Sequence to fold (610 residues):
Amino acid sequence: MGTAMRIQPVHDARAYPAAPEGAPSDAPAGAASATAQAVAVRPVAAPARPVPAVRFARLMRREGPGLLLGALSICLLIGFWYLATTYRWSFYIRFINVPGPVEVFQDASRLFGNEQFMTNITISLRRIMLGFIAATVLGVTMGLLIGRYRRVRQLTFPAMEILRPIPAIAWVPISIMLWPTTETSIVFITFIGAFFPILLNTMHGVATMDSVLVRAARCLGASEFALMTQVVLRGAMPHIFTGLAVGMGVAWVSLIAAEMISGQYGVGYFTWEAYSLIEYSHIVIGMLVIGVLGLLCSGAIRLLARLVMPWQIAAGKENNR
Amino acid sequence: MNATSAPGRGHIDIQDVCVRFTQNGVPLDAVQSVSLTVNPGEFVSIVGPSGCGKSTLLNIVAGFLKPDQGVVTVDGAPITGPGADRGVVFQQYSLFPWLSVRQNVEFGLKMQGLGRSARESRARTLLGLAGLLSFENHYPDQLSGGMKQRVGIVRALATSPQVMLMDEPFGALDSQTRVVMQEILTNMWQQLRLSVLFITHDIEEAIFLSDKVYVMTARPGRIKAEIPVLLPRPRTPDMMSSPTFLALNRQLRALIREESLAAMGGELGEGGLAGHDWHVGAEGVGAML
Fold:
């Protein structure tokens, strides 16, 4: 509608120069000057305006159905939530005490101004960062060494294999004993969660790397150190990023569990405390915040992967399906 | 060619080399007392049936493998491991997929500690020679097989090695690309005149490129014959129909055929092809091959 109405005066204006000069009286003169302006603007705007519009239309035709389904998926979830809580459904699963979406969003908007709630978020993020960075540095370094040197593998891997199946949450009690502060013990549990996926994927990356690349590098005069940092590390990069993505997921699981059990502060602590204090809407807010933060963290890793591995994008190796 | 007297740059000397493997606990000779020489500036090919140990020999010169017996020297110095003095071109292109074409070429220079601008200008010069300058910022996965292998050759040449070792470098290319690559290689060699040890199973390729062709026997690999190629330089594709070329081709084909038959002897049974001659018809064994 809007576009159709805007096009109309342009048509008039185009006709105008052909019309006799003296014809318009006062009132049409005002209209004429307005249309003349439209004419003046049009040559500049005309080439620019349809192109983004066409591009947008094309984009919508390609991506539209996907976006629509995505929006539908979220609407269905919220719709179900709304219906279940409004009508207090109870069929084995009970929605009697579950807060509805309206209540949750109202409380959420209030909470985001609350300083203590924001502190909980920043503390959780700081724990994730510290634990995850430590796990990345140690996991990648050890993965490269274990993957490349048989003796290192023989020395360290059996011990790793014993520790690996122990879930990070099972480390909570011993972690509290080991570390001087609660804070460091929670960071340690986050670290444990992220460490093993990163280690194993790095090792796998080194193992599956084409050995001819190592040979080629040695023929070109690469020292052992250069070989590790410029060939083995780079070659294992796609697998390392798989490890980082998995590790980030497990780090969040471990962090939230640790915060719920032993915590002070943090989003996990906030969520569990809400349950104890019968602030039911806060439980859901805590859950949603955890979900969004996890999503942002894995998005950051994907972005980093694109920046660090431009050759994967150039070669069209990214899996877009 | 020019100097068998003074051991100049790029002189490969392989003396009485043996390589043993153990297969199911049984020691097996892969290469048996092989001696050969690549004189400075000479292009030498090794041909032979598959599994004869041609690549094993090249791996020894490259420094990936230690012989169980014998001495291998380059310019008089024994080989202790891989190094930039010997450029290697592999059959699998072996380009670093995370580096652009130019960065691949610069890799060896970077390892030598050369500064950025010096690396860049040397890489660009060489890429220009190979007709790849417009692809300098592409990644290897964006190139065709022939282009990848040109980058591989340029990368091996960048550090100015004394010798080039090439292990069936065109083996993975289609036959048209192969012929073009052989021309490019012989032209580049004509300008650079460094020693080349070239492994191939393609007889025409060996004759077209080489000053000297060694024929190896089936396992255990030994040197069966040393055939000098007395075609003039620079080589051009029309030489491939010259009488000299055709005579050499026939001679080498006959030598290799004997070895291929020997290698297949085990599969064909005691009599070799003799037991099958009722299949062969009036033309005899030759027609079947």
